[in-house]
Amino acid sequence: MNKKKMIRLTALVGVATATGVVAEANQAHAATTTTTETTNQTTNASVESTQAAVDAAQSTFDTAQTSVDSAQANVTSASNNVTSASAALSSAIANKEAATSKNIASATSAVSSQAVVVASASQAVSEQAGVVSAAASVQASAQAEATSASASLSSSSANVASALSAAEAALTSDQSTAANNLSAAESAASSASAAVSSDQAAVDNAQAAVASAQAIVDAVAEVQSSDVINMSVAYITALKNYLANPSSANAAALQEVAKGADYVKELQQKFKSDASLDVVVDPSDPTVQEALSVYAVNLINHLRNQYGLTTAFGASANANVAAIDFVKKYYDDEDWNIFGTTGSDGQGHNKNGLDAYADQLNTSIAEDAGSGLTTWVNGKATMATTTLHNLLYAVYSDIATMLFDDGGTNNWSHAQSIFEDGTILGTGGFNNVYLGVAFDKYGYAHYELYNATEGNQLGNNAYSLDVQTAAQALLTNAQASLASAKASLQRMTTNLMVAKAAVVAAQNQLAALENSSANDLVAVTKARTQLASAETSYQTALATYKQKEEALKKAGDNLAAAQASLEAAQATLATAKAKLAELEETVANLTNADQLLAAAQAAYEQAVANLTTATGNLGAAQVDLAKAESQLALAEDTAEQAKVRDAIAAQVDQQLNGSTANDRQSAGQDATSLKTNGRALTATVATASAAKQKQGANQGRLPQTGNDDQEASTMALVGLGMLGMATGLYGYKKRKLTK
């Protein structure tokens, strides 16, 4: 029996006691036993039956609720369809209104004009394709001629060597000439050798640059993916609290969570050190600048993402150029040392320079600065010998320091500049931030935050934030330099081979002269003639080779230009065709305006009809739901009444089992006479209570079994009689649906 039922049964007992009913009933116990047993069986069956009715009503209610939900969804869908059909109908009406003969004629004329444009563009493509074909033919011919000239040059070189060999036996008498020839040949060979050595060094340097660039491509991506700074949830929470309310308590809490310099050192130790990054680079080189700014922006955007911000910083060539220009003008040229030699004796930010440069660019600028190439842990790397590793480590270390070691007089301003959105340090106008990175002549790093607009164009020439793309550009430039150096080396090597051959020939000539006789003068003269002829042929072949090589280059340039023109013509044709298709569609819409309007009208009317049907279905479903809800409430009330009757019957039986024989006989007679009319007993009890004034002393206390006044028998009769009243009380119970 739950608490609510117990309270109501107690109230019934109180009512019975207050009436003053005493031992007025003397029915035998045997008679009442049969009655109470029958009553218990009946009430138990009633409880089970009413609960089954509740379950059935609940099921009906759930089904009705599902029908209402489905009908509501259908109404929503039908309403959306009506909205769409209405918009389509409006468009069709507008199209119908525009479908005048004048407009149709104008649109048709535009189609005809555009068709002429398309035909012209198509003709231009065909013509340019012919130009490309002709240029390709010229290029192929030039290639063949260059190849032939190269073969002739090789043949002439062989002839020179052959002539020199023939002169070995001929130059027997002219020792002075031979010595001079040898000296000249040796000098030429020395010059050629020096040129080859110089070009070889250039090739070696270029080869090293390619190797370094390739290493950078391989390593930078790994550095970018591994060199991230992860903030703890506690730090983010403390920083947000501080930025919202920069009180001393919040500042102290943030400083405690950030852990200061010790945590910065821990982060710095996580920087991935890769030997392939130990290549000397120029910090102002555009390719290096791109890699640094992309690396810095990626670190910052990773932090902003952790902080919960959706706006990201960008990087661009224009922002980097502006940063380099600003640092040179307001720090290098003015000898402005921001940190000084110890970090505490510097001049700080050049605020006047920042104001002037912001006015010059007509934008908002914020500046963060870091120790850069100078750290008081690892020493200073000079600008002339710095490596890519030094630069990347400087950026990583600076950003880490700005986050976790920025208390004191700075008041966490660096962290504010990284995490504020739309404003920086309380200054508005930072809703499109682009970062530029530059190093001053003292080795300190400057991070310039610009608000990019269409006017200042600081966001133009934006970099891809994939750092490997920037590294790949460095590799491409290095490979181009290597190819040029190799070509120069090849030319110088050829010259050296010729010069060395001349030296060998002159040496042989001198040796031959020392061992020859005067009779060899004729042979000497002949050999000199052959040598002169061979040298002339060589020079002619060399000139022809250079000419053909230049012609080949020009033909290649012409072919490239022709191909570019062809691509431009093809793009023009594509644009013209797209415009023609658009105009043709306009003509079709105007011509078929009646059909399109009729279709739109029919679709709209069908959508309205569907909405009407769906609305009707929803109303019917809501009626069914209301009926099911009412039936469920009635079933629940009936079940509660059955439970009350069952509880009262059980209590009556318990009371009767403990009374005397005379009490039970009297109670049984009264119960028998009253079981057909519970409401009549209620009136009777009230009358008996008024007649027995002498029982007033017993009011307010619970009946005790076996006392002189036979209260137990009286309570049994009152309990049965009050059954109707109890069920009436439960009829006012607040209905509660299970849905």
Structure report:
The protein has 739 residues and is mainly alpha-helical. The protein has helices at 3-18, 29-98, 101-170, 175-226, 233-244, 248-258, 260-269, 286-307, 317-332, 351-361, 388-404, 413-419, 467-515, 521-591, 593-657, 661-674, 678-691, 711-721, 723-730, and strands spanning 314-315, 365-370, 374-375, 379-380, 422-424, 427-430, 433-439, 445-451. The strands form three sheets. A four-stranded mixed sheet has the order 1-7-8-2, sandwiched between helices. Strands 3-4 form a two-stranded antiparallel ribbon. The chain has a two-stranded antiparallel sheet with strand order 5-6.
In short:
The protein is mainly α and 739 residues long. The chain has helices at residues 3-18, 29-98, 101-170, 175-226, 233-244, 248-258, 260-269, 286-307, 317-332, 351-361, 388-404, 413-419, 467-515, 521-591, 593-657, 661-674, 678-691, 711-721, 723-730; strands at 314-315, 365-370, 374-375, 379-380, 422-424, 427-430, 433-439, 445-451. The strands form three sheets. A four-stranded mixed β-sheet has the order 1-7-8-2, sandwiched between helices. Strands 3-4 form a two-stranded antiparallel ribbon. Strands 5-6 form a two-stranded antiparallel sheet.
